[in-house]
Structure formats: C-alpha cells, structure tokens
C-alpha cells in the first residue's frame, strides 16, 4: 500500500507530554517499500521531515510546518552465531520494551537493564539510551538507515554511530538526516545481569533473591522504575529532562568541598558526573509548578505536564531551573529531549 499523507493532524496522541500541536503534513510509515513515496513527497513539496517513534523524548513547542512521519516498520529476527553469541534484529518501529521482553523470552540476554524505557527501537540509537549501567552502545552491532537527503539505504556500525553519554552522530552531527529502519544487537545465551548500578543489587537482596531469572530481573527493573517515574499516560513527561553534567574532576572536587552532600560519580578519565536530580532537588524545585508545568514530586529530574501546559511552558520552567542551578553551582544543565520546531 502506498504511503498516505494527511494534513493538519494533531500530534497530541504522538508525544508523551501530550502537547496539542499540529503537523502540516502527517504520514504513518509501515514498510520499507513506502520510503520511495516518502522521498517523492519530500521532493515535490520541498518540505523537511520530522521522524517520530513513540514521541517519548520530544518537546513540541508550536505547530510544525513539516511533514511528520511516524515510524511503524516492524519485524523481529534472531539467529545464533558460531561463537555462541546471538544476533537479533528489530524493525525501527517495534516498541522498545516489548522488544526487550521478546529477547528474554528467546533466551537472548543483555538488554534486561533497559526494560520499560518508552519508545521505539529506531529511536534508541539517537541518544544511546541507557539505564542502570547499560547503554545500547554496549550491545548494538549495526543499524540500517535511509538517508533522507540522498534516498540511499546505508549501514552504520556501532563505531560509526559515535556513541557517547545520551548522544550519537544522529543527534550531534546529522540531526534528522537518517531514518533508522532496523537495528541489530549482539546478545548472549548466558545470563550475566549487571547489578552494580543504582541500588539494583540492594533491591534484589531486599526480596531475598540471590540469582534472579532473566524475566524476574526485568520485572524488578520495571517495578523500581514504576515506583520512581510517572507513567506518561497518567502524567505527561519525557523522562529525565536534563542530562547529568559531566565536568572536570577538579571542578567537581571543589564543588564537593563546598557542598559535601553532592552526588558525584567517576566518569571518563579526568571527568566526574554530577547527579542533576540532586542539584535541582537541593534548590527546592521538587514538586514545584509554574501553571500546569511542574517538577515531578518524586524525581526532580523529570518535568511534567499537569494538564494544559504547553511545550513553551515546560521550556520556560526548564530555563528557570537551569538559571538557578547555574547561579548556585556554576554548572549549566543541558536539556536531554529534542525540542521542535
Ligand atoms: P521520539 O521521542 O519519537 O524521538 C526522539 C528523537 O529520535 C527525535 O529526534 C526523533 O526525530 C528521532 N527518531 C525517532 N525515531 C527515529 C527513527 N526511526 N530514525 C531516526 N530518528 C528517529 N531514555 C533513556 O535513555 N533512558 C531511560 O531510562 C529513559 N527513561 C524514560 C522514562 C520515561 C517515563 C520517559 C517518558 C522517557 C524516558 N527516556 C529514557 C527517554 C525516551 O524513552 C528515549 O529517548 C527513547 O529512545 C525515545 O524513543 P521514541 O521512539 O519515543 O523517540
Ligand atoms: P538513580 O538510580 O536514583 O540514580 C541517580 C543518578 O545517579 C542517575 O542519574 C545515575 O546516572 C547515577 N548513578 C547511579 N548509580 C551510578 C553508578 N554506579 N555509577 C554512575 N552513575 C550512577 O536514578 P533514577 O532516576 O532512578 O534512574 C535509574 C536509571 O534509569 C538511570 O540509569 C537513569 O539514567 C535511567 N533513566 C533515564 C531516564 C531518561 O529519560 N534519560 C529516565 C528515567 C530513568 P545515569 O543517569 O548516568 O545512569
């Protein structure tokens, strides 16, 4: 079936903040064959494209004079390699969490710490999604993408993606240029859970679990996440609104002397990572609101839409938090989600 283009469509159901902005043109992309229609439309209308997966990392501040394409390309494939590892490929439109659960059911391990991250497989490489000490850069082999500029299909290895903390070449150098069609991961037949991070081992001990089963471990991650984070269906949000700042180690040590309680982690050589949530929390922002834009009451890193906030309201609240943090600590927080237009 050819790609269907609609006009003036509300994006409220397509972004996890629930902002009611509209797209001038809109299409649901279901297959690789429809990419030719997409390119023809782009050239004919001379209009830029915004790709959306699950819309869980977006801040939409106004109506978009763009063609918005929601990626729904599905497909799952698994095969064993001679070295005992497993190759798993998923279509970019697959739901990330469902995909993680499917890998575990297939006996392919390595993505369990990334359970319950909202969104799609195709968006996961954009910011190198991570949680509880695992990032997809640790597990991804390659991805297949469609170059919206040239119309070519290209393969990126993990190294080509230039992954960094919540960053990749698709965010830093080529924003919006490549549509990720499918992603391939190298997983293991042996279950070796990563436990050292964010109190996960303590959570297992509290439950008397010494050697968790893979799906049980994924369930635990879901439980911990559900206890700390708002469900977008109930309270609009985009997860962590700010990245944890990575600053020179000596600057972190000076700050730690002034603020002994500051949460600081070792990072790449010569650098330290500050917990942004702690910085914001200390300044009394947790639970505060500006109109319907608010800071989540259980987690200061998450900004929420209490009903009728707009993207601009959220960005203004973020700006006030950034200014306050900078004034107190001399550290500028960077916004994590993608803001459009
Ligand atoms: P979207 O929001 O639709 O898009 C995000 C960006 O990717 C946009 O720039 C978009 O243009 C681009 N994009 C989307 N699909 C494609 C594609 N197929 N090809 C090319 N570009 C594409 N993130 C983490 O890293 N760790 C977490 O633990 C985490 N927890 C979260 C918890 C909550 C409650 C929420 C709401 C968000 C959380 N996030 C987390 C952020 C978010 O889930 C991830 O960034 C996720 O990968 C976004 O996927 P998406 O499909 O919703 O992307
Ligand atoms: P948490 O476990 O309470 O930890 C608070 C912060 O400390 C996190 O930001 C985490 O950094 C850092 N941290 C914890 N243990 C660490 C260690 N051993 N080494 C280095 N850094 C450590 O955090 P949380 O808010 O409940 O989130 C749990 C995990 O899910 C985190 O990994 C977080 O990144 C992820 N998450 C991400 C989003 C998002 O939208 N990006 C939303 C919700 C949760 P990191 O953030 O660098 O991991």
Distance between the termini: 30 Å
Query: In CATH terms, what is the architecture of the largest domain?
Result: 2-Layer Sandwich
The biggest beta sheet is recorded as: 5 strands, antiparallel
Q: Let me know the number of strands.
A: 20
Q: What is the overall shape?
A: globular
Average of per-residue pLDDT values: 97
Order of helices and strands: EEHEEEEEHEEEEHEHHEEHEEHEEEHE
Count of discrete structural domains? 3
Would you state the CATH class of the largest domain? Alpha Beta
Q: How much of the sequence is in beta strands?
A: 25-35%
CATH fold naming of the largest domain: Uridine Diphospho-n-acetylenolpyruvylglucosamine Reductase, domain 3
Radius of gyration: 21 Å
The hetero molecules present are:
flavin-adenine dinucleotide, NADP nicotinamide-adenine-dinucleotide phosphate
Helix content: 10-25%
In order across it, which strands form the biggest sheet?
A: 6-7-12-10-11
Q: Label the structural class.
A: alpha+beta
């Amino acid at each position: 079936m050819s790609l269907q283009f609609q006009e003036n469509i509300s994006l409220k159901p397509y972004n996890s903040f629930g902002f009611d902005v509209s797209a001038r043109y809109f299409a649901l992309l279901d297959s690789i064959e429809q990419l030719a229609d997409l390119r023809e439309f782009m050239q004919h209308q001379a209009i830029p494209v915004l790709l959306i997966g699950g819309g869980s990392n977006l801040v939409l501040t106004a109506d978009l004079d763009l063609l918005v394409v929601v990626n729904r390309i599905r497909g799952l494939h698994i095969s064993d390699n001679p070295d005992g590892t497993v190759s798993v490929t998923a279509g970019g439109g697959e739901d990330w969490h469902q995909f993680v659960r499917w890998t575990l059911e297939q006996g392919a391990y390595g993505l369990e710490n990334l359970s319950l991250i909202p969104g799609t497989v195709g968006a996961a490489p954009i910011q190198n999604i991570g949680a509880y000490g695992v990032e997809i850069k640790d597990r991804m082999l390659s991805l297949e993408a469609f170059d919206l500029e040239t119309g070519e299909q290209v393969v990126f290895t993990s190294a080509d993606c230039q992954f960094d903390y919540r960053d990749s070449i698709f965010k830093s150098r080529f924003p919006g240029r490549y549509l990720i069609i499918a992603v391939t991961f190298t997983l293991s037949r042996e279950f070796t859970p990563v436990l050292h991070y964010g109190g996960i081992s303590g959570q297992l001990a509290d439950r008397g679990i010494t050697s968790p089963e893979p799906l049980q471990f994924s369930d635990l991650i879901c439980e911990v996440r559900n206890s700390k984070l708002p469900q977008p269906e109930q309270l609009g949000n985009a997860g962590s609104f700010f990245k944890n700042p990575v600053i020179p180690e000596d600057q972190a040590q000076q700050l730690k002397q002034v603020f002994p309680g500051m949460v600081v982690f070792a990072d790449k050589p010569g650098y330290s990572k500050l917990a942004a949530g702690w910085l914001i929390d200390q300044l009394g922002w947790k639970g505060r609101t500006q109109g319907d834009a608010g800071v989540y009451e259980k987690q200061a890193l998450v900004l929420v839409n209490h009903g009728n906030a707009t993207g601009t309201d959220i960005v203004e609240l973020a700006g006030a938090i950034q200014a306050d943090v900078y004034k107190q600590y001399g550290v500028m927080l960077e916004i994590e989600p993608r803001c459009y237009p």
